[in-house]
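Progress report, Aim 2. The chain analyzed during this reporting quarter is listed below.
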Amino acid sequence: MTLLRIAFRNMQRRRFRTAAMGLAAGLACGLVFAASTILDVVEGTLEAGTRRLGADIMVVPAGQGVSASRLLIAGEPSTFYMSGDLAVRIAGLAGVEVAAPQVFVASTELECCSTPRVQLVGFDPAVDFTLAPWVRHLHSRAEAGAASVIVGANTLYATEGTYMSFYGKLFKMVSSIQPTGMGFLDESIFMTMDAARDMVRVSGERSGRPLALAADQISAVMVKARDGTDIDALAGHIAAAVPGVQTVAIPQLTAAVRHDLRTNVGGIAAAGAAAWLMTLLVVGVTLSLAVSERRREFGLLRAMGATRGQVVGLLLSEVLMVTAVGSILGLAGGWLASRHYLGASGGGGGAIPFLPPATPEVLLLGALCAAAVAVSAAAAAALPAWRGARAEPYDAIRGGA
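Predicted structure tokens for the chain:
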């Protein structure tokens, strides 16, 4: 009979202790894995979304900062306007490399069905640096009677080749943007500025819902700062130099979102740390009791030729097998918990459309968490195991339980 088989039999006989160690290990591994996965997804989503958007500052009418922030992060439809001349003034300010105007129109809800509202975004391909890199083909693929648009990956309309009418104007969905994690890009429908102006022009006569957007109005100006420019300082300079506007510094906005989410996840991480300490305590106490109760067993093994190292290996094998099973169950639970959290906070109807984590990263995080729990549990068991193995066989058999 091998030591591993003996260890397995011991685990079966002492089911309560086995379950206690496995539960502690699984709880610690699952909570730490869930917190690590959530933080990794949050960091990756915000970094990818900000990089894909490319803008440093969003300039909107005064009083619309909150709406603009919700639009950027969550893609919440908004409609607000200001004079188009402001884009020229902003472009001429020191520190501004490019200023691109955009027009926002929130779609209407259809009475016939539960079609959700989406943000319709008009942009100027000649100067836009946030959308143009992804939709350069738009203006060259218009068809008779229909303007071409590109749709965000998370919209209901993200199916190429289909047609949809907004405010009486027909559009063809020619492409969709890959998920970015930035709600503004993932939850909106994009068209050229000319198509947006034409939609406004025909809205009253074709849809019965005329859009109140003048020909010289815009909704926002996306600003790219020159290299080396302090973003917060430039945002303050724009707000001071151009009356009637409010600025949203995108790095500052994403930093605030990151901080809030880290604070929320901090509770999960703290619970994981507490469970980790509990695991070490449970393993240490359980093994100390086991050593006292199993002195005769260890003495018989030593008398039959087992070395001290083999006895230590027997106890450590029990600990590692229990923590391995517990960690696997904990990882499964942690994955489900992280999916639920991200679904409630993001793509499942929450604030941010989180990007799914890459499978290799998830596997690596899971392996690291399981390995860390196993190593720490083995370390907690090392001293009791060595104390049980150092007793002389004759003394252990006579004095054992």
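Residues 250-293 form the longest helix (44 residues). Residues 136-144, 346-350 have pLDDT under 50 and may be disordered. These observations will guide the mutagenesis work planned for the next reporting period.
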